[in-house]
Structure formats: C-alpha cells, structure tokens
Amino acid sequence: MEHILEQSLQQSLGWNDSGSSRRFAHGHTGLAPALLERLASPYGLIDLARSRNFGKSLRCRNAQGAVGSSRFTSEGRLDPRKLRKIANNGCTLIYDGLNLYTPELEVACRALSWQAGEDVWANAYLSIGDTPGFPLHRDSHDTLIVQVSGQKNWEVRRRSIGSAAEAADVESGGESAPSEILWSGQLQAGDALYIPEGYWHVATRSGLGGDSHSLHLTFGIERCTGARWAQWVAAAVAEDDMFRRQIDNAGSAVDELSERLAEIGRTKSFPAMQVSRQETATSKYQAVHIPSFGSLERAVAITPFAPSIQVDRAGVRVRAANVEIELRSEAESLIRLLLSGHPVDLGSDPSVRRLAITLIEHGLLAPLTSYSAAGYDGFVRTLFMTSPRHSAVGM
Question: Which end of the chain has fewer CB atoms surrounding its CB within 10 Å, N or C?
C-alpha cells in the first residue's frame, strides 16, 4: 500500500523502506494543509464528539490536571457550551483510538501497520488557548507525532539508561528524567516527530497565548518486546513432550531440558514470531457482501498487516487475518492486485468479481463504499481493471 502520509513520513524522517531506524527524528512532511485537515480538524473533532459517544475514549485536561467528564459532556457526548466555559482558561481534548471512528485515520493506521509490521493506533490532542500538556514523561511504545494545525512547543530527552519498557512521568516519582535535552522546538502544521519508546518528552502551549490552538495526531507503534517472544516460546515449550514429564534435581535431566529449550528457541525465533503474529492477527474491521444490495463495483483489502502471498505447485497460498486459503495459480496477478491495499475498480469481468467476493467471504477484502472511500481519496491511488486479462492502471 502506498499512502501519501506514510511516504511523506519516510522521506521527512529519513526512514528507509524497511521501516524506522528506531532513532529520534524530526522533519517536515510537506503535506498540503487540505490533506492534513482531511486527517483531522478542530471543528471536525468537535462535531465528531458532539454526535458520537466516545465514552472513556474522550478525555480533557487543563492546568489543574484531568477534568471530570461531567464538565465537558452531556449524556456521553461532547457539550460545546460546557467546553467553551473550560476553553476560556485553556484546555486539551484527547481523543483515544480515533482510528476506530474515522475512515481517514483507519486507513492511515493500516498503511503504517503494513509498513512497520507492528500494531498502530491514532490519538488526537486538541489544545485550546494557553495550556500545559502532560508532565515530562516517557511512553512504553514508539510515538509518531504529526502536527495538523496550530503550534505547540516540544522538548525531548534521551531514554534513561537501563530503564524498562514502561510508561512513567516525573510527577509519579521513583525515577528521574535525564537532564540533557536532545531536541527542543516548536511544531507547526506539517511538522513531524518520531520519539522511540522510553525517550522522555513534554509538549505544551504554555506561553503561546490564548487566541490560538494546537492539533496534533499521535500514532502509537506497539513494538514487540523480548517478554512477548519469551511467552511465544513458552507456549511451544508447554506442548513439548520433554517438558511435560516429571523431573527431579538430577543434573542430566536439567541439562537435557536446557538443550531442548535452546533448540526450541532457535526454531521459534523472533523473526518467526513476527511473521506468525502478522499472519494470525485478526482484523478489527469485518465486511460482508450482500448480492441484493447490487453489483460489487469496488473493493479494498482490510487485513491488519500486508498479506503473505506465496506461489507453489499447488497454487497461490494467501495467509492473513488468521486465514489461510489456496487459490489457482493463474489468478496470482489479480490476487496481488486485490490485496495490494489500494482500492480496486473491478471493471466488467465476472471472474474478477467472483474472486473479490471469495476474498470478502474470507475476511480479507471489503466492498469500497462512499464512506470508506473517504479514507483513500487523495491518500491512496485507486487501481482500475482495464481489460479481461487483469491488467491495471492507477490514478
């Protein structure tokens, strides 16, 4: 999948095709203001929270800390009149998991997940007026910040030496942040930061005046840890006959188990776990094709990660979204097209539609609707079938 946000981030942050360097980076995406506003906008977010019940996924903070939901919501929805009263003294609205609510961010997170091979989600932070943010803290996941509009000041410090991969802030005590400042500056619309897990940082609008705002998106990237790999190995160990036998304190038995454990660890390697996790991750988004709704005209892949497509003598084997299917080898080029992550105009060939419906029934593909198309228009080019021979062009 070629998404303009993901491509602009790769270029502006100096990443290569295999993903980030896992080092702190900052740059300017060069994205047009109209595209940034498509991802999120201040009034758009207010309208969204006014019409949808976000529950605990909508939070608010001001200079005194967390604001009780009754002070800015009514019946579970954002109350603009209540918000205005709080906003007079500065506040920040926080939208957790915003990718579950808008097609634009759903598709952007899917593109980043396909590229990084990791789970990605999006939060939005809308700061109104002169207001501080969270105290100096570190996160247990990598964070990718894209400034959508307005301005916000940032300060980033290095990771604490030997620190565990867990969240912490200076107000909770127990650990001090490094004193050396790695980077500080003001983000403007289109700017981006990449902050690896464990790096301390703080963002604020304090001192920037009450007649402006800041809106930025934070894409969280949940990297695999050694603990997760150990759990994967432990699951394999639990099924191994040697480890299901009773043992005593005899050294030979323990030595044999140690050797067997090392062997299983080599077989169940970290890269193998990554491949397995990506192939078996289930999609948050389900689709259905109902013939009585009309002919299937357009479709798009909805798998959490890029599908694995392998060809052998038996045909084409597709693994994704905890599904494995085998299809005819003659359909390889069409399968790759349909599962490319790009919207596909299916054209007039009935065989193309039949294959698309098969992939929908297995949860790998979805009909593209006017609603879901909003996540692709201007961000991901559409591919068009140009002949019954299954060639395609993009726009």
Answer: C
